[in-house]
Design brief:
This protein has 370 residues and is of the alpha/beta class. α1 (29-44) packs parallel to α3 and α7 (169-182) runs parallel beside α10. The protein has 16 helices and 15 strands.
Length: 370
């Protein structure tokens, strides 16, 4: 049986955040109930295909999956376990936001086999949370985190975001240290990206006065770069190691599901807009699967794998594609190495610290002309 990851999308939230461009929206109970019913039916439709796979990880994302009732979550996992063979030690994660979690829900998650929580915090400063359009305060996050610990969850991720409105280098360091003191097993630390179609895009990119607001409210480039370096310095001092560009973990608590994405493990996405990669075919729910060419597979192997601090394996590249990495990418690797952006250690090609700073540029160099 081949390893498979499952991603289940719950496209509902209490309120859309000002920076969010994910497929999510507020909803009524009736809309959520109809969606769950349809989702369970869709899961069961994979019964025949599922026979070839063993599920090694499940990630329930959104939106805000914790907006669902205990009964709805139980039905979803009942459908999953009826349809798929889920390994006993599978990593099973659910995303949640403070203000949507209760002890009863946490007990339900335990009963469903969920063993990893991902809590959206973003900032320990309430002024910054308000600017982001979050529905909770830092104090409500603390209540949720402590409640999860009381219910026995010992693998918790906390999402943080830098370069957000009204944030300073000092307030970002305060957020990092405050969260690290709580000792979650994993911390995801992302920098704000202002996406088209979001309220932040209108405020900081399009509306009259956007430039002045941008200068007044958002950290400048120097401050943003300082925050980037503060993140690595502070979290490593607190016992977290950086295993991917934006992710830090205590030893043994790296997110297996996300590592699967970066290593191109097959994954099946179920739910509105969910993406899949199965048998080198990619598609989003509702679309026709598209076969990836060998050059496209090579590109993905490189630019996804380079997100990992370990980098990409030359040996594994040869096993997959039956040709050497240097044969395909030798000139690019040599050029990036001369520029100090890549290095090779023990058959792994990886980004240098300088390369991480310009990772988008480096990864773009691995696109092939077919």
């Amino acid at each position: 049986m081949r390893p498979l990851e499952l991603y289940i999308h719950i496209p509902f939230c209490i309120k859309k955040c000002n920076y969010c461009d994910f497929l999510s929206a507020p909803s009524t109970w009736e809309e959520r109930e109809k969606y769950v019913e349809s989702l369970c039916h869709r899961i069961c439709e994979f019964a025949d295909r599922a026979k070839a796979y063993r599920v090694i990880s499940i990630f329930v994302g959104g939106g805000t999956p914790s907006i669902l009732t205990e009964e709805q979550i139980s039905r979803i996992f009942a459908a999953v376990r009826t349809t798929f063979y889920v390994e006993e030690n599978a990593e099973i994660t659910i995303e949640m936001n403070p203000g949507t979690v209760t002890e009863k829900k946490l007990k339900c998650y335990k009963a469903a086999g969920i063993n990893r929580l991902s809590i959206g915090l973003q900032s320990a400063e309430n002024k910054e949370l308000k600017a982001l359009g979050r529905i909770h305060t830092f104090e409500e996050f603390l209540d949720t985190f402590r409640m999860a610990r009381r219910e026995g969850f010992c693998n918790i991720n906390v999402d943080l975001m830098s370069a957000i409105p009204y944030q300073t280098e000092e307030s970002w360091m305060y957020t990092l240290r405050t969260v690290a003191e709580l000792s979650p097993e994993h911390i995801s630390a992302y920098s704000l990206i202002i996406e088209d179609g979001t309220p932040f895009y209108e405020r900081y990119r399009r509306e009259e006065g956007a430039k002045a607001r941008c200068q007044a409210e958002l950290p400048d480039e120097d401050a943003e770069r300082a925050m980037y370096y503060d993140t690595k310095k502070i979290l490593e001092a607190c016992g977290y190691h950086r295993y991917e560009i934006s992710n830090y973990a205590k030893p043994g608590y790296e997110c297996r599901h996300n590592l699967g994405y970066w290593e191109r493990t097959e994954y099946l996405g179920i739910g509105s807009g969910a993406a899949s990669l199965v048998d080198n075919h990619r598609w989003c729910e509702g679309e026709k699967p598209q076969k990836l060419s060998v050059p496209e597979q090579m590109e993905e192997y490189m630019f996804l794998g380079l997100r990992k601090m370990q980098g990409v394996s030359e040996r594994r590249f040869y096993e997959i594609f039956q040709c050497s990495m240097k044969e395909v990418y030798g000139p690019v690797i040599d050029e990036m190495t001369k520029k100090g952006l890549l290095e090779t250690r023990n058959e792994f090609v990886r980004l240098t610290e300088r390369g991480i700073d310009v990772s988008n540029y480096v990864m773009s160099e691995f696109l092939l002309d077919e």
